[in-house]
Inverse folding.
């Protein structure tokens, strides 16, 4: 595919990924918005369709990450093939790790709706408590996302393929997440800040997506100079 095609695919996929991700978060929060394990499982049973739809949306997010990995690699490989390959691996890892997390939601759905072979009430409560553990709400795939985003943003900046301020925003937003996600995973970072730290990345991705769709991407600067 041409660089222009990769740019448009990446732009549309960014927007699709954001829309699907925000819808998924809303549905999961709505399905699990109760206090205590028993109440949450009962709430999931009443809103099982939300969780079922959320599982499908999670699958779409996984494939979106892989499509983005390939499109961004196609855009940046001429700037630095090895770094672009590392970014590709990280974004593919994001999609794969995200898919591995889907069985958690299937497990919640199974014990909440007392599916075939479901455990007794005591066992279901114990399993539900584990599956609803706050630490499991931290997507491990997000760490791969942050590293991959940092690499691709750096390559976009180094190659002057998008406006420099936009590329710098991507680098800084990505580095912020690279630092914060491990701290959140280890329990050192909690509270509202874990939501606010996403804001720079959200602004960057929406702005980058619109730029790629409307303007496309420039050839790497060093290639233009060589020509």
């Amino acid at each position: 595919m041409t660089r222009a095609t990769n740019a448009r695919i990446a732009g549309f996929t960014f927007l699709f990924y954001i829309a699907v991700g925000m819808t998924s978060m809303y549905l999961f929060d709505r399905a699990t918005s109760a206090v205590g394990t028993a109440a949450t499982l009962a709430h999931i049973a009443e809103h099982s369709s939300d969780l079922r739809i959320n599982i499908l949306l999670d699958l779409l997010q996984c494939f979106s990450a892989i499509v983005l990995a390939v499109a961004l690699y196609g855009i940046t490989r001429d700037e630095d093939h090895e770094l672009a390959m590392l970014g590709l691996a990280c974004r593919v890892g994001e999609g794969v790790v995200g898919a591995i997390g889907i069985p958690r939601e299937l497990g919640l759905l199974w014990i909440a709706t007392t599916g075939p072979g479901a455990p007794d009430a005591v066992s279901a409560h114990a399993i539900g408590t584990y599956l609803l553990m706050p630490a499991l709400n931290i997507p491990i795939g997000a760490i791969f996302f942050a590293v991959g985003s940092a690499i691709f943003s750096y390559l976009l900046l180094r190659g002057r393929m998008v406006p420099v301020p936009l590329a710098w925003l991507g680098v800084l937003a990505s580095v912020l997440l690279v630092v914060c996600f491990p701290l959140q995973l280890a329990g050192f970072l909690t509270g509202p800040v874990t939501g606010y730290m996403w804001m720079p990345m959200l602004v960057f991705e929406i702005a980058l997506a619109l730029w790629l769709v409307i303007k496309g991407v420039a050839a790497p600067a060093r290639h233009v100079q060589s020509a």
